[in-house]
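TODO from last week: model Sulfotransferase family protein.
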Amino acid sequence: MAADSTRTGRIVIVAGPGRSGTSSFAGTLARLGLHVPEPVVKPNATNPAGFYEPRWVVDFHNRLLVRAAVRNLDLSPDARARAERTAAKPGVRAKLRGWLGDVLENQGSQLVIKDPRSSWFPRLWVETAGEFGIAPGFVTMLRHPAEVSTSRQTYYGEDQPVSEQRANNIARIGGWINGALGAERASRGSARAFVPYTDLVADWRQTITRVGAALDLDYDPAPDVDPHPVDEFIDPSLRRIRVDWDDVDIPDSLRDVGERAWQALSRLATEGADSPQAIDAVDQVAADYATLHADAQALSRHDVWRMRVDTRRRTERAAKSDEPSA
């Protein structure tokens, strides 16, 4: 269907790395009367309570990331620009516009779009939804990066040798830092809320009321209904992974940047989503992470060169072996 600039509705984009509480928050919104577009990703052993992710959205984002050569938890500060260039290519917005228009027409006007990959494409969602007269709101779930890293290791079943554990920890923590800081910057200018996972499981009513006010949401049933469907969905035992930096083997320099990123983003939850002081702190940490990443690239420059040489030589040998005999 064509875009309709007079349409009214709400779109809540739930962002944050996997294992940071995004499924719990999306499931809470679903029990408060918002709609998760169907069909959805089915529950599995890593998340038996459900992901609350529209299957079409997950597949759409996956294709874009593959085309952009960007990983879900990408460590490169340049990855966001690559993702945005891919999302700006002809036809991409038309595909999203067609799907979104159909969902708004047939499935409801208050939508929950939850997919950790959406953090790479907020501009695409804002601009496309704007064609329907809707300004999406963003909810970013905050969970300490050490807990996110350990939870991903535990529930995604990575059987890794001891020799690779430190490298994988570095990749997960670096990916959390880069993704979280970039997503914060990309959501500026939109209605948004930052929600610590611990706040959600400790007092979902107070948390959801704050988010509803920030994003102008209508809940049905209202949070003050008692008993409420959310009561059986959210309980403190959901936070099964409790660790800190001492449990994650990474360099001190990365730990320092990770902790400062966590503190800066947490300030947006306590001081307000647009606190100038908190945003300045986020920008400083982002600059420091970019420097750390560039330094790591410089240290590995010769290794990368050797890998390219080896790849070229293997390709040349393979080509020669395929040549017909004289």
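Done. The CA atoms of residues 6 and 133 lie 6 Å apart.
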